[in-house]
Structures are given as structure tokens and as C-alpha cells.
Design brief:
Helix content: 25-40%
Low-confidence stretches: none
Distance between the termini: 39 Å
CATH architecture: 3-Layer(aba) Sandwich
Strand content: 25-35%
Number of strands: 5
Strand order of the largest sheet: 1-2-3-4-5
CATH topology: Trna Endonuclease, Chain: A, domain 1
Radius of gyration: 14 Å
Amino acid sequence: MFVGSTKNKGMRGEELARLHLKKDGYKILESNFNTRIGEIDIVAKDHDFLVFVEVKIASSSRFGNPLGWIPEWKQRRIIKVSQVYIKNRGAYNRPVRFDVVAIEESGRICHIKDAFRPRGEVFV
């Protein structure tokens, strides 16, 4: 299912993740929000929640734990980038959630809502 360069695999995975989220009623606000700190794959709205989504592509048919694919340092980076997004878009006073969408080579999707939370950091 995922052939070609790593970049192409990532783009295809993000496309599948967006389709999955839309099917579940999410409104996609932005894809690939970039800052000098890092990037967030998908920013979406789920009811009142502003949702920052990390997309992961499984490189084998064995899923494992998708959360294990996002080390704590990466979680902190995503949180920092989300703060930049909130500041730049004036999206204060909205509940925020961090989700992970993992996609297996077969196309099976594992969506983990509220996959991680800020720990001890002051959040915007």
C-alpha cells in the first residue's frame, strides 16, 4: 500500500488519516502546520476540541503500540508547536487534545484520542 519515498508514504498516510477523521465528523483546519520548532501533521476540530494529530505509518504488518512510536521528546515538541498554533490563530480558551492516527501497511487505522497530555508545562 505504501510504496515510494518516505515523503510519499507520509503524504499518503496523512491523506488517509484526514479521510478517516472527516468520516468521524472532524473538521480539518490545517495540514502540515510548520514552525521553526517543528510540525504538526493535522490540526482539526472535534466538537469543541482543537485537536492536534500526529500521523504514524507502520513500516511492517505488526502494529505494536503506536504510542511507543512517539517518544516523550517528540510529544513535548508537538505540544510546543501547538502553543505556537494557538497563539498565531488566537485560538485561546478552547479545550485541546492530542491524538495519534497510526496506519498499518494493510490500511488498517488505529486512532488514539487523547493520546498524550502536557506534563508540568504551562500550557497556553
